[in-house]
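Hi team,

As requested, here is the filled-out complex form for the alpha-D-galactopyranose run. I kept the field names the same as last time so the parser does not choke. Let me know if anything looks off before we queue the next batch.

— J.
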Amino acid sequence: MKKIILILFIALTTSAFGQKVENLALTPPLGWNSWNTFATDINEDLIKETVDAIVESGLKDAGYDYVVLDDGWMARQRDENGKLYGDPEKFPSGMKALGDYIHSKGLKFGIYNCAGNKTCAGYPGSRGHEFIDAATYASWGVDYLKYDWCNTEKLNAEGAYMTMRDALYATGRPIVFSICEWGDNKPWEWGEKHGHLWRVTGDIINCWDCEIGHGSWSSWGIWKIINMRKNIRKYSGPGHWNDFDMMEVGNGMTEAEDRTHFTMWALLASPLIMGNDVRNLDDATLKTLSNKEVIAVNQDSLGIQGLRFSNENDIEIWIKPLTNGEWALAFVNMSEQPKILKFDWLRHKMGDDLNQRFLDFKKETYSIRDLYGHKIIGNTTTELNAEIKSHDVLFIKLEK
Ligand code: GLA
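And here is what came back:
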């Protein structure tokens, strides 16, 4: 009997090939992560205030639900039983109490660790402690684990993530598994078997198109990340996403750049994880982050990562097929000057060869909905005319 129960448990959680079959992250996860703004300077009050702000600002209603504590939450050593625990000065009430608070507000609890001996900031890593750590997280009610790749020496990447996946399964608790391996070992080729999202590059930074070197590694601006990984779209889909990193919206770029950054993450079907201080939101940042029409594009159930259609005269056009034969299109002004857009639909054929979806404007007419202006601005029988400010975007949906 015991044997039958065990076989049933394994069959329910994994397929015959050890692949995950549970229905988590069928659309890209939405939430907030502490790292981009606070690094390791996090504590109980900050997280509770953040939770409250997500609820009160309407961001929860817009769909953001995971609250993820990144590096720096834990004590510098394990306890006498080898278990991790929260830094008692930063989290005096303990991690379970914090998880309870997050859950009491209708949000979900995310936490961070690393496949190596130590995390990137030098806290105890999970190597050799995977099963005890997963069990500890489950006992705190953790719903999401971001699992990093520092101090891993010669560890095999896929093997390391598989071990942690098995440890999470062994808890019996559904936990979204966020692989943070920076793209070093092409996680898009194996990540689907083990996790629900995987970082595709090194760390993001709040600039349009810069690369900031730090010796052995670099931080990457928005367009560096997009261009580096625009061609791995076939690996992304429901339950398994290319993760373009936590967002920098609200962290110092211009309003137009923030809007374009947000639009592109939505169009690329990336997880939308806010990385700003949501306790101090200016109106423009809140308006961008809580735009439900843009979030709906990101959350479209087909889960197709968008693609670049053209790049002419400093205007990039990106397209994403949506359910019901509708499409999202972004016209991005890459230049330092305003641009006048004139787009004659009838002279263009657009499509997504990978997914065999095509647009033929001679055969079918679509209404054009401006997703930031929140109104219909015409249809595809007449030329689209618009002025787009420097680094800004016209983001539209073609509706039937
Ligand atoms: C790595 C990750 C970041 C962040 C830090 C924490 O750099 O890529 O997202 O988690 O570690 O130390």
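Two things worth flagging: Residues 35, 70-71, 119-121, 148, 180, 182, 203 surround alpha-D-galactopyranose (CB under 6 Å). Confidence is low (pLDDT under 50) at residues 6-18.

Thanks,
J.
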